[in-house]
Amino acid sequence: MSNTKTIKLHFGMPVNAEVSTNGGQFGAPRDKGRRSHQGQDFKAPLGSTVMASESGIVVYSGTREGSITRTNYGETVVIDHTPEAGKNERHIYTLYAHLDNRNAYEGHEARKGEKIGISGNTGMMAYYKKLKQSFHLHFEVIDSQTELSWGYSFPTGNRQDPMDYLGLVTIIEYSLSEFGEKMFMV
Ligand SMILES: [Zn+2]
After folding, report:
1. How far is the CA of 20 from the centre of ligand 1 (A)?
2. From CA 5, how far away is CA 68, in angstroms rounded?
3. What is the rounded CA–CA span in Å between residue 87 and residue 146?
4. Could you say which of 19, 25, 68, 104 would form a disulfide bridge with 126 (CB–CB 3.0 to 4.6 Å)?
């Protein structure tokens, strides 16, 4: 018997919309270069269906409101695509932000392609909110070597370019000594 377990993740498009290249790509400068864009934006008009990029467990569904001077995520959903992995093993999450409405509760087992919300411009700075072009889906991939907790303060770091995951197969190998801690608790 093998002492490793392999998981294959195949991330699909979170919305049927074009990717934004003009400042909406991963790593684009923000705040005059003091930080960089942590996700990929999609040019999704208000009300577009937002889908789970891959199957997983919804670990956050809530509101992170912005202000007049600073954009935040707004209505946000986060999915853990590696819920069976242990605390000290690799976890891959996807994050969907600025939603107009969320259709997923925490703990929900989302299937790939399932509707988890509709796109909007919540959490955007008031200035941008007035502009119709501020409607878009902000999509992040968080690829972490440990489990993260999505509570009042969100974890930072571990963001990767979503374009390196979309449409591709991501393979993760776990050693069975740690893997399955949770699996066998049911
Ligand atoms: Zn964005």
Report:
1. 9
2. 48
3. 6
4. 68
SS3 33: helix
CA dihedral 147, 55, 71, 67 (to 10 degrees): -90
Q: In angstroms, what is the span from residue 136 Cα to ligand 1's centroid?
A: 8
Q: How far is the CA of 158 from the centre of ligand 1 (A)?
A: 16
DSSP symbols for 128-148: HHTSGGG-BEEEEEEEESS--
Domains delineated in the chain: 4-174 (2.70.70.10)
Say what the pLDDT of residue 186 is. Answer: 41
> What pLDDT is attached to residue 129?
83
What are 144's two structure tokens? 């972490």
User: What separation in Å is there between the alpha carbon of 7 and the centre of ligand 1?
Assistant: 28
Determine the pLDDT at residue 79: 98
Q: Give residue 56 CA to ligand 1 midpoint distance, Å.
A: 22
Q: How far is the CA of 182 from the centre of ligand 1 (A)?
A: 33
pTM for this predicted structure: 0.92
| CA–centroid distance, residue 175 to ligand 1 (Å) | 35
